[in-house]
Each structure stands twice: as C-alpha cells, then as structure tokens.
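Hey everyone, long-time lurker, first post.

I ran two proteins through the pipeline my lab uses and got sequence/structure pairs for each. Pasting them in order. The first:
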Amino acid sequence: MCLSAPAHPRLLCTILGGMLVVLLVLSTAGTALAASTFTGGADDHPLYIPDDHTPVAIHFSATGLTPGAQYYVKVRLNTTAGTGSTNMRGWTWNAGSKEWVQERDDWTKFPVVTADGSGAIGSSAGWTSFKFGDDTKSGTYYILVSLTPVPYVGGQTLNGTAMPAVTVVDMAGGGFWAHNGVATGVAAAKRAEFDLDGTATVAALQKTEANNCDDDSNGVVDDEDYGPAGPTGDFRMGAPTATVVDTYLSSHTLWAPGQDKSSATADVDIAFGATDEIPPSAPSGLAATPADGSALLSWTAATDNVGVTSYGVYRWTAPQPIGGATNYTSLHQKVATVSSRAAYTDTGLTNGLTYHYEVRANDAATNTGPVSNATNCSPVEPPPPVDMTVIGFIYGAGYRFNMPLVATVTIVKPGASPGLWDDTGYDMTTDFTGLYAITASLLEGPPGYAVAAAADDYDSGQPTAFAVGPGAMMNINIQLQVKPTTFSGVVKNSRTGKPARGVKVACAGLSAKTDGKGKYTLAGLLLKPGAKYAVTFTRRGYFKKTVKPLSFPGSTRTVSTKMRPR
C-alpha cells in the first residue's frame, strides 16, 4: 500500500506491468505565473489625470517584441511603481470595438497593436485614450502599460519597464475642466495640451475632435461638440484649480484664447476664449420623486452673471463587479439637457432599480457650473387603481355675492411641467344647483390628483388637490372668483362741456379720481355677471351723479357722464 504525503510534494502510486511505481509530483496549485516585461512604457502623457471618466491621451513605446506580432494593450494606473497591487485603476479605449474596457476585464476586449519589423511599437501606433474612472481616489499614481500576445492564452503578460508618475486630481474638490469657447481652426485628431504656464510641462493631453473616441461615454463616437456649433477642432481637458496653463494645439502651436488661464473654482467647465468665462452657480435642492418607470426631478435654479440657458441632467446606477472586483465608480451620464425651467421627468426606467441624479447649469457661452447635490430614487410599479367618489358644490363669488354655478368639473393630474395639468378623462357639468359627483378609478401615491372647475365669466384658479383612499368619498367645494370688470370714461361739466377734474368715481367698494382731462379708470371690480351696479360721481361744487351700467366680467366698459355744477 502507498500513502500520499499530506502536503506538497505529493506521492502518487500506480501499477505498471505488475510493478509498483512511485511518482514524486511537484504541485503548482496556487502558484501564479509571474509576468515578464518589455522595454518601454508611457513616454508622452499628462502630468495630471482627472479622477472621473474624463479621457486623456497617452502615448507608449515598446521594443524587444516579436516582429510583426499582434498584442492586446491595456493602460492602467497603480499606486506603486510596480505590478504587485490591488489598487489598479483605469479604462482603455478600444477603437475597433468602439468601447471602453475596464482594466480587470477580459484581455480579448482590449485594443490590438502590431509590432513593426524590428519588434517595436511607436509612432502613431502607440497612441491610446485612457480614463481613470474612480472619483473616490486621487493622489500619486504610476502609469503601467501591459501587453499580451494575440491570440490570448494566459500567463504571457508583458509589463512596461517605464512607469512614470502622475497626479490623479480630485475634480470635485480641486480640479476644473476647460474647452474651447471659440472655434479653434484646427483639424480633427490633432494634439491638444495644457502646459504649465511658461514651461514645457504637459499638464493635460488630448486629441481634438473628431478623434475616433467616445469621449463622453454615451455610446456614440465623435458626437462631442464642446464649444461653438460644429465639433471639428474642439477639445476638453482637466487640470487642478489655481494652476495657470497655456493651451497648445496641433504641432505645439500656442492657441492665444487659451493662454494664461486658470480657475479658482473647482468642479466647473470653462469656455476658454469666450467673451464670458464665468460659469453659473450650482443648482440646489435637487429632489427625485419615484413614479411608475420614471422619476420626477425638481431643483432650485442656479444663477449666472449673464443668465442660465439650460441644465444638464446626469444619471447613474451602482457599479457592477468586473473581473471579480468593483474598482471603479459609475459614469455620471448626461441623459437630458433641459431649458431654464428647473424640472425634468426621466422616463423608461426599471422599477425597483435605484437611480442617482445630479444637475449642472449652463450659460450661453457654454460654461458649466458646479454640480448640485446628489439624490436618488427607485421607480415603483403603482398599486391597483382605487375607486372613489369626489363630490361637492361649485360656487361663484365676487363683491357681496356667492351663488351656485353651472361649471365643468374635471379630475386632473400634474403634467410634465410645473403648473400644467393633464385631464384624466373624468369630468362632468353641474346643473343650476352647482352640485357635482364624479366616481373615478385612481392611483394612490404621487403625483396625485386634483379637482379643477371652469365656468364662463369666472377665473378657474388653481385645482384643489386631494388624497386617494380605497372606498373613500371626498367632499370638495370650490369657489371661483368672478373675472374683474373695468369701468372707464370721461366726466365733464354739463354747462361748460369742459373736463371735470378731481371727481371721485366709486363702485362696489372701489374708487378712483378723474385727472386733468376728466378721465378715470376703475379696475378690479368683482361684479355679478349681467347685474346693474351703481357708479357714483361726487365732487364739491357739483350735484352727485349716479349711473347704473350692466356688468360684463372680464371686459372694460365705457361709463362717461356730465355733472351739473351747483
């Protein structure tokens, strides 16, 4: 009998040709294959890299590879100048598949580069787009470029020997973005960089639009248009606050509109070269109300030195593990640009999934201000409708009267914009008693319902909100105010025919005086429709005069007269 050893190495037994054979097996279980290296790495890169999903351009070179061979390439940032770390971060752009690939994803998803006849990679073949993609991290990191042969078989990773240090910038607390606020006049896919003022140190590095990259990560390549109408030659890059930079485009040519620029304010996007380079303030009070497959957003408006022209609404969900880890934060994707109104309804959502939101304000010069507070909500499927009856009376009111009205009564719900209401289809017309009773099948919870009433000669006012409850009967009486009537005219002396100045004109508790031409206007009279009301004219030295015209709500009636002097 043969017993295997309790630990590595292991003894294995077998019978061959009637003989007992003992084999000593060295186990490799749990032992990782060490990665090899290639000579090279990142050789053209920015000093600063934004911590969010802002792309940067990085160039690398490599030598000592197999001539003509293809390699997958990934770029990542590490907290140490080596590979032994779990703090790797980064996304590499694959122009072939048109997708961003996270550093822990499958090797076969990364872009492919080809070594030349001498086994080197360089020149234009070495350019790639990269983004950090974790806004919870910042500080000193090291650029690591890794390769592995195509086809992928595992255990053949080659890491670059050069790992230059960079600073990952906390954009929310200490960074700003900038883009061209005027046309650059530069062709597509040209070098764009911010240099530290008066030096050759590259602070930020990108390629101008169109650059065959989905820079805003919205799933559409080269649809970015940062400045004036037309994307060609546009750029957008990030840098630390209070850092003065000079902008260079194309072949290291100074772009004058972007010279000696900086921002003392964090988390803003400035339009370099625009006549207005002051971004709006941050919106506040962002709130999200869940509904069926949607979220109703509202916020308090931002301010701007010229004027806010629109708001960008950004949405994201919780990040999901990639390669067994979640070493990134979700992209805050712009889902809408709305006009200056401070509300938006986000539709097409999945009930039960939590969505996070934030809002930024824009101005006419394309400056973008800091982010609002973040909020979240989970859309929910509404409960079954509840049958309930809404009953009550509609009254018309004005100066010393209150009477039943023949009116149209409608159950409404909030519309897409504040102050707008949508008809639910439940309505009726009252009889001469003003009584209404509507039985409707309604949903409990937000956005809620209200009763609206409308009648000729009366202002509708705001609908009256009510709560929905199972089997309930809601009593809601509504009072509509009559539309105001205006009396105006001229008062003259009956003997001379000249205007009578300073005559007091009074009706229904309101009064006015005639001017030097005998003219007056008596507005805001809340008079019962079709009734006669006394309009009195009084002044010392004249006999009192009374006129009783008919009232027509919502109209201006001419009531002129002559007064007999004493």
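...and the second, right after it:
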Amino acid sequence: MTSLYATFWLRVAAFFIDILLIAFFFYIFKNFLPQIIGLFWINILFSWLYFALFHSSSWKATIGKKIVGIQVVKYDGERIDFKQASLRYFVSLISTTLILPYLSIVFTKRKQAIHDMLAKTVVVDAITSTKDILQNSENFNEQEQSKQIKKISLKRKLVYILLIIFIGVLLYTIFPFVVLFIAYSYMYIEKDLSYNKSFHTLYQERDYNDSRINFYKKELERSSKGLVNAKGVVDIFEYDTKVDLSLECIEYYMKDNNETEWIEEGSKYANNARNKFAINNDLIKNVKNNADNMGRNFYLYDLNLVNGIQSDMTNLWGDKSNQSLCEQNLSANQLYDVFLTNYLAQYIENHISSNKRKSSVSDNHQFLQHKYKTEKEWLEKITKKSSLDIYKQFSSGKITLEDVLKDNQFKASLETTDVVLEKKEFIVADRNRGIELWNINSNNTVHFQKILTDKYKALRIKRVNNILYVAANGKQRGSFFLIFSYDENTKSLTELDKVQMRFRDWKFFDKNKKVAIVGGYDRMLILDISNPKNIKIIRKEKPDRTNNMSFDLVINEKTNKLYEITRRSLNIFDIKNNSVLKSKVYYSLKGQNSLAISQEDNTLYTLHMMYGKKGSDLKKYSLDNPNKPKLILSKQLDMNYEDWSSAFFANMKIHKDRLYIAAKNNIYIFDKELNEIQIRKTPNIKYFYFQKNKIIYTAGKNGLVFLDNRH
C-alpha cells in the first residue's frame, strides 16, 4: 500500500534537521578535532557513522527522521544492519552531488531514491507503519494507537512549520543572489559566445585617412602575431604590453580625429590584428590561454602598475596639452623599451618594500613569504630579457635587488633629450627629471652635478648668456615655452615667465635674439622675448587641415625667409620688421619631415618619411629664387620610418659642407651631392650638436655621448 512510504517532503525535512545537527556539532567541536587528515575527511567520517549507526539502531532512523516520524527498513519491514546502512550512505553521498537521483522518490511506487534501490531499503511513514503494527499485535489497544499517532502528527506539524519558516527566510535571503547569479550566468554565456564568434569575424575599420593610425596598425599586427604564438610567461607579458601600447596609440589618434566611439572602433583593430594570425583552433586556444595567463597573474605582474605606466606614456586618458609618446611615432619595440625601464624600476622598489613588510612580521606569515618569493621569481624571469646591463647582473645573481635600486635609481630615470655647453659646464634637459647641471672633470669625463629644477619634464633647451630658454612638459599638465635666469655662482634657476604651447622646435630670428618663433603641435607662435619676465605673443599661426603642426623650422638669414615644414606642406614666410608675412604653400606632403639649410651656398634640404612606406626621400633645393625652391637633387634612402622615429624631430644638420642625419642608432653623413660617405654608431640618439672636433649627442637613458668628428 502506497500510504506506507514516506513522502518526498518528509524526507527533505528530516534531511535538513540532520544537516543542521551535523553543522552544529562541527561549529562546537571543530577546534578540538584532530587536524591530521583535514576537516573535510573528518566530516565524511562523522557523517558516515552518524547515518549508518542511527539507521541500523533500534530507532531505524536518524534524529531528523525520528522527529518527523519516518524510518529506514528492509523490504520486509525489519531493521537494516550496519553494512547495509553503510552502503546506503556512500551511495547517497554520490547521489547528493548529482541531485537528479532524488527525484525518483516522486515517481517510483515505493518512493525510493537510487541509494534506496541499491541498498534494498525503503523509507516508511511511522504513522502508517505504527497503525499496521498495533492492529496486528495481540495487545491491540485503539486508545494507545491514537495516542502514538497523535504524538507523531504533532511533531510533524511542528517540523513542517519550522521548515516553511526556514525555507521562507532562506528564499528571502538568497533570492537576490539567485537573480544575480542567473543574470551573470546569462551575461557570461553570451559574452563567451560573442568572444568565440569574434575569432571568425572580419570587422570594418575606419582609418580616417590618417597615416599615423595606419602606422600603428602595422605595429599592432606585428605585436599580435607575437602574442598569438607566445608560449612563455615573459613573451606573453611582452607581446600583450606591445599590443596594448600600439592599440592605445591608434585610439589616441582616433580621439585626435574627433572619434567619440574610439574604444569600440579600437577593439575592431585589435580583433582584426589578432584574427589575421589566429587562423586555426590550436592558435585560437593559445590566444585564450595567454589571456587567461594575464588574468591569473594580475597581482603578480601588478597590472595596475602596468596600466598606469601605459596611460602615462600614451596620454590616452589625459589632457591633450600633455605630450604623448605616440606623437614621436615610436615603434612597438621602442615603446616597450621605455615601458620596461619604468616598470622594472617601480616594480623593484615595490618588491623591496614588500620584503621589508615580510621581515617585520613572523616568519610563519605564509602569504607574505609566498608573495615575496613569486615576485622575485617573476623579476628574475623578466630581467633576463631586459636590455639594461644592471638588470642582467641581477638576473645572473651578481648583485641584489637593493643594489639595483641603489645604483640604478639614477640610471633608470635618466632620459636626456637636449644639452647646452658653456665653460665646461653642461645644462641638460631630461624628460623625466627636469633641468640638470653636468660638468667635465679634469680627466675629461662628464659628471652629473645637481638637478636645477624638477618642476618640468624638459625636452629642448637653449642658452643666451645667463638666460635659459626651455621647452618642457609640466609634471602635472600642460606644455610650455619657458624663460629662466641662471645664476652661475649659486648654480640655480629662477623662472621668469612662460607661455603654454605644445612645441617641437623653435628658432631665434633676429640677431639680438629678442624674437623667437616656436613651432609645434599648436602650429606656430611668434614671441617677443625682449623682456624675459614678460613674454608677448606677436602672432599666432593656427593649425588647419593642410598645416596641422610644425615639424621643423629654418631661417635663411641672407634673404630673411622662414621655411616651415608641416605634415602636409612646406611653407615659405617673409620676415620683415620682426613680423612674419605668409607666402603661398609650396607643395603637399604626408608624413614626418625635417629641414636643414646651408647659408653658404643657399640650399635647402628636406627629409620626408612616410608612415608605413618603405624608404625615405632626401631632397636638395636651390634657393636662388627664395620664393620658389628648385629641386636639384633627390635620393631615396633605404630606410623605413621606424629607423628614424626614435630620434627627435630636428634630426638633420649642416656642418662643414656635410649633411648629418640622426636615425635610430646611427648618424648618417652625406656630402652635398647626397652621397653617403660615413655611418657613425650612435645608440639611442635624440639630439646632436657640434663642438670643435666632436659630436655631442643626447642619448636618453645612456646620458651624454661624445664622438670624435675629425674626418
């Protein structure tokens, strides 16, 4: 008869009571339990004994089942033994993880779960079974039967009430979490499907007819190819960083083109670059694994630090008045070199702080011990690929991290960009540390002396007597043309005045140096600097579609002509009475350009570098007609844009009938017929100057370098 067997909800109620009792036991006695095999296995052991002993006892039930009035028995109604009870428990343990086997209670005739069937047991309703037993007994007493049934029914009602309250509170508590779980699960599944689909989708890109975006698109593709095939953690980190830097430069120029959806448009470039090389399932799987690697090691790599350095470099989220390294058109490899220098210096400093915290607590503090160990292992791996000798010494075990920080604190932040020399004294512009004073020792070696000011990130510098003219970025925001007075006795600077201007170069164009013309990203300013304490703007040439920025400026002193080269044109101006009168645009260009002029033979040289195009154009013009330069020589240089981009923008000079051009790691020397006559190795060159028989050049983190220039 079906009424003999316990219903699904009676068994659920009993199970909840048993689970609460077991949990209560562990909460009270967990500190007294042995830790040899772990709490999990102790829990399994205790639960087995609890269920097996109670089910095989005279009760035929656990405490929970006793309260709700149900029993576990054999098919014939007899008590089960310990072996049968143990089998039932372990099968139920497996069934519990699957949940579905419990649903058979609702549909089977004897209301059995899977573990009941395998153990050959049934769970009976104590009210029905009590009625049967008493009625078939010789001492049947109807009053006694009614009393026992009423007692069981009362307990059961109380348990049902408590169970309803418990389930209600539970649902009220977890309902918001269930909703969130479902919502996030849906979003995760949808995102995962979208992510998988993105590997097989060709996205329509906008290039805005901007060669700068096309240049960094190629850098993004090179980096993506490396990331798709990367295996080791260092290679994954390197190429992932290069991808991010290239992409941020693309998005930087999208913003420059007034694109409001630059994040979405940028992701199209990233996906297309990745998909170009992730062409089969194995490579797609490797891409996903590499992405997982970056996520798993978020704190080890300190990706907050990574993102902060990248943001400072590209200025993607910053004020447009601050200069972005993207505007120097550095390759992904060059951007990564800058990134790695900053990353290693800051990471090591943070790592040493972590070591101090570790040392200040108990040696048993496993978290800090593990953190310090994994950070050190990561540093050892990444420094092996660093181009800086001091990091290589650390990775080979020759010096400690503390030595790196102590000895390299100066070198890691060094980024010399310009220099002026007077009386064996150098005043150096440094884009990280400001304006510095260096000197020449008795043994003719250059020695750092002091920082004159660290308020600005100095890029260009000129000196006239004791007046210093500086082009710099502010430490916080903005780019400026500044004037300082320099006290030779106290070796100190006093700021006199400044004008906000995003510059590239400037020239004095009167003999007394009282007027300056400044060219840059905001096009061109003509400044009256006769009173250093009060700079006046005489005239401002605003950028337009043809002339969006000034790349280089030269002045022909014989004819009083100013030649300005922009991204798209060469402009010629007449200079009269300390003013500039604009003439017509001479010709159209696209790319990055430089100028040099020979006053002796009245000739003009232009160097034209097209983004993404192989080769560079070097041209020589006659200025016999100053308003209409005549092309007399042209030469295609077998060098790509990337070869020029690490040198700063004014990278071409005339000296003693020879033309000098600074590129990535060399100075190329040409005669006036544009024949290449010499190549000088100049690693990391920025700006260069001539001083007697020497070439002096600034070389970023390599400081100042002297070359013998005797032919």
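Reply from user beta_strand_b:
Welcome! Quick read of the second one: The CA atoms of residues 18 and 649 lie 79 Å apart. The chain has 19 helices and 29 strands.
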